[in-house]
Specification:
Layout lengths: L2 H8 L7 E6 L5 E7 L2 H6 L7 H9 L2 E6 L3 H15 L14 E5 L7 E4 L6 E6 L2 H14 L14 H4 L15 H18 L3 H17 L3 H20 L6 H6 L3 H5 L8 E10 L2 E11 L2 E2 L5 E4 L8 H12 L10 E5 L2 H12 L11 E5 L8 E4 L6 E2 L5 H29 L2
Parallel strand pairs: 7-11, 11-12
Antiparallel strand pairs: 1-2, 1-3, 4-5, 4-6, 7-8, 8-9, 8-10, 12-13, 13-14
Length: about 425
């Protein structure tokens, strides 16, 4: 497809959500994508510098689109089409570990989880956009609550109090058969919606609402109508697809502060947990577009030090992390500490044979309990900067990453400690 042909095809595209399909000379899909705005998205192919995408456009014979009523519908339709056609040029098609699948366990009260590798459980996918999928699940969970607790407990969890959990599903006391049925219905609803059966599912709900109303159970009928209204509202109004062009053009205060010429998309946070050096552990957490992505969290047992030395332990963690060329490299590293930790991190990174031409900026966060006088130390700079000098968004982001790295590290430490002293 020439540039002129692509321009001509784009003229027919609307400014609405949907999927677009590049087809080859045999009218078979080469690439399938979703878009918040179809016209703007396919227009970006006119100026793409991605050699893989340029090659795909050259091989394409035609370009088609299917409009959808919402962005969530576009996400789900894209998943169905990619699964059906296994298109040659779709993102990371040769490495299924990069796709997202939604899994449903087979027990009485099924757990819903994300995975890159489908297993023996019921799995729906592939979904190429993990962030959009997580946002969609967050919306659906507000209507059809389900449990994400990893352990049972005696008291109601926080998610129960904010309406995201039914309450009985994670308690140690045995749930009734009625409760189990309610929970199973919620997870079944999410399964149907993600499988592209939303319209037929809504019809089922409307039919059920009518039947229970005829039997005089108006409370149940009102509850079902409320679910239908919320579901339709989410599909109509929810914003889940972030335009890649918007994300590329976004500049935060951190990028200006660090004098970077490209946006900060991926941030890795590190922390160490130990008591007098014993049984020390370390953590790596990853935030992408400001949101935690637990698929890229990593845990470390400290091998080289058994005496209190957080700086040396941090150096070990980073040296081991950057031996992994297969792990995507971050745009920014955040560590807990001060100037000494920055120097240790820089020394560790300099040993990586994969980073000869790549300078990753490092920020060390020195904090206190009252968040007063907190500072950040930046690699390559002599003096620290008070955290209050940052915008509220950048400040909160750094504090969130630091807190999450600490939580993850101490959680792993406690787990190992329990095993050792059972």
């Amino acid at each position: 497809m020439t540039t002129a042909q692509l321009k001509e095809a784009i003229k027919k595209f609307p400014h609405r959500a949907g999927i677009y399909i590049f087809k080859n000379t045999k009218n078979k899909p080469l690439y399938i994508g979703k878009a918040l705005d179809l016209k703007n998205r396919v227009g970006s192919y006119l100026k793409t510098k991605d050699q893989r995408m340029r090659k795909m456009v050259e091989l394409a014979q035609s370009l088609k689109f299917i409009p959808t009523q919402s962005e969530i519908e576009a996400l789900i339709l894209e998943s169905q089409m990619v699964k059906r056609y296994r298109t040659q040029f779709n993102i990371m098609l040769r490495d299924d570990k990069q796709y997202f699948f939604v899994g449903f366990t087979k027990n009485d009260m099924p757990r819903i989880y994300l995975t890159h590798q489908p297993d023996s459980n019921k799995c729906i996918g592939p979904f190429t956009d993990g962030n959009a999928l997580k946002i969609t699940l967050r919306f659906l969970r507000s209507i059809f609550p389900y449990c994400t607790c990893k352990q049972t407990h005696h008291n109601y969890c926080l998610n129960y109090h904010i309406g995201k959990c039914l309450g009985f599903c994670c308690l140690k006391s045995e749930a009734s058969n009625k409760n189990k049925k309610t929970y199973a219905n919620n997870t079944k609803a999410i399964e149907k919606i993600l499988s592209g059966k939303k319209n037929s599912f809504v019809k089922e709900l409307k039919k059920e609402a009518g039947n229970v109303a005829k039997r005089g159970n108006f409370k149940k009928a009102i509850e079902l109508h409320s679910k239908i209204e919320k579901l339709e509202r989410i599909f109509k109004n929810a914003r889940i697809i972030r335009s890649s062009e918007i994300m590329k053009s976004y500049r935060s205060g951190l990028e200006s502060l660090l004098k970077l010429q490209k946006p900060i998309i991926r941030i890795e946070g590190y922390d160490v947990s130990n008591i007098q050096g014993a049984h020390a552990t370390g953590s790596m957490v990853t935030f992408i577009h400001g949101q935690p992505d637990k698929n890229f969290y990593r845990k470390f047992k400290i091998h080289t030090k058994q005496t209190p030395d957080d700086t040396a332990m941090l150096r070990e963690i980073l040296e081991r992390r950057f031996r992994h060329e297969e792990w995507p490299f971050p745009d920014l590293i955040l560590i807990d500490g001060g100037k000494g930790q920055v120097n240790a991190a820089r020394a560790a990174i300099s040993k990586s044979k994969f980073l000869i031409s790549k300078q990753i900026p490092i920020i060390a966060l020195t904090k206190n309990k009252k968040h007063i006088g907190e500072k950040i130390y930046i690699s390559g700079r002599k003096y620290p900067i008070f955290l209050t000098k940052l915008s509220p968004a950048d400040k909160n982001l750094l504090l969130s990453i630091n807190s999450e790295a600490h939580r993850f590290a101490i959680g792993y430490y406690r787990k190992l400690h329990r095993k050792l002293f059972k």
